[in-house]
Write a structure and sequence with these properties.
The chain has helices at about 5-10, 15-25, 45-50, 65-75, 105-115, 130-135, 145-150, 170-185, 195-205, 205-215, and strands at about 80, 85, 90-95, 125, 155-160, 190, 215-220. By secondary structure, it is α/β, with parallel strands linked by helices. It folds into two domains: about 5-35, no CATH class; about 45-220, P-loop containing nucleotide triphosphate hydrolases (Rossmann fold, 3-Layer(aba) Sandwich). The strands form two sheets. The protein has a five-stranded parallel sheet with strand order 4-5-6-3-7, with helices on both faces. The chain has a two-stranded antiparallel ribbon with strand order 1-2. Helix 8 (about 170-185) links the parallel strand 5 (about 155-160) and strand 6 (about 190). Helix 7 (about 145-150) packs parallel to helix 8 (about 170-185). The radius of gyration is 25 Å and the shape is globular. The model is unreliable at about 5-15 (pLDDT under 50).
Length: about 230
């Protein structure tokens, strides 16, 4: 590429013809009115990826039950701004399995599938441990607003449910969150290492009963993917 061509490409486009003559007569440089290139709009998926943890930023949901759930939620969405569908009432998923079988990967992949399909949604993701840390009572902090926000969020990912030490307080917080989403049919993605019986022991009958009715269970198995595989 010649230096002249490079300079020409770096210079703004000049308006010529009748419009250019009129601008010159009025003392306006045609270059000043040349339109700047219009930036490509940022997609909802690109915006969301800034909120998704780096390890799951390119997660893909490939489990048949998870992909079927995402399609169901996308189809059920009611029109929102500019006609794009938003999250409406719908089913929930409980993804269970041993540590390292890809539960969180599938959950974030499902969220990315919805965004890639053009669904505009407000979503939150929180581990059970972080949920209790956020809501634990402390001076000068109003935790009720945070809890209400998670209750009403159109889509919630609650990760590692049952993985923390429980108490009467954690059981009550979990019950309020799950019960509200259960009653209002708000789609919820839940991951857990615990079986149904173990969840009942950890969280109580009230929570486990609602989870059993509101969620479709997806079971993942296999070795811990986080551990390096030994050479044969």
């Amino acid at each position: 590429m010649t230096a002249a061509l490079t300079r020409a490409r770096q210079q703004p486009a000049r308006i010529t013809g009748r419009l250019g003559d009129i601008l010159v007569q009025r003392g306006i440089a045609p270059e000043a009115t040349a339109q700047e290139p219009v930036a490509e709009p940022v997609t909802a998926l690109e915006l969301a990826e800034a909120r998704i943890p780096a390890r799951f930023r390119h997660a893909l949901a490939d489990h048949p039950q998870v992909t079927a759930w995402a399609k169901t939620i996308a189809r059920a969405g009611r029109p929102g701004p500019a006609g794009a569908p938003g999250i409406a009432e719908g089913p929930s998923l409980r993804i269970v399995g041993p540590t390292g079988t890809g539960k969180t990967h599938q959950a974030y992949g499902a969220i990315r599938s919805l965004l890639a399909a053009g669904v505009r949604l407000r979503w939150e993701a929180v581990t059970a441990a972080d949920l209790y840390a956020r809501l634990r009572p402390r001076p000068g902090f109003e935790n009720e607003r945070d809890l209400q926000s998670l209750m009403r969020c159109p889509l919630l990912l609650l990760d590692d449910l049952g993985a923390t030490k429980t108490s009467e307080w954690t059981e009550e917080v979990t019950y309020r969150l799950i019960n509200h989403r259960y009653e209002h049919l708000r789609p919820t993605l839940i991951t857990s290492n615990l079986t149904t019986d173990a969840l009942r022991t950890a969280l109580g009958d009230r929570v486990s009963s609602r989870l059993a009715q509101m969620t479709e269970r997806v079971t993942l198995d296999g070795p811990d993917r986080r551990r390096p595989r030994r050479a044969a």
